[in-house]
Amino acid sequence: MAVLRVRRSERSSNPISSTTTPDGFYSSLKFLTTTNSGTVAAADLIYLAQIFEGQDLQGWNKGDAQAKSVTLSFWVNATQTGTYVVRFLDADNSRNISKSYTIDSADTWEYKTLTYAGDTTGAFGNDANASLYVQWGLVAGTDWTSGTLATSWASGSNAAAFEPCDAFDADSDTFHITGVQLELGDTATAFEYQSFGQNLTLCQRYYTQQATMNYGYPAPSTGGYAARQIYLFPVTMRAAPTVTATYSYQNNTASTSQDAATVIGYSVQYVSTGQYNITWGHSHVASAEI
Question: Does 9 have pLDDT greater than 60?
Answer without folding.
Answer: no
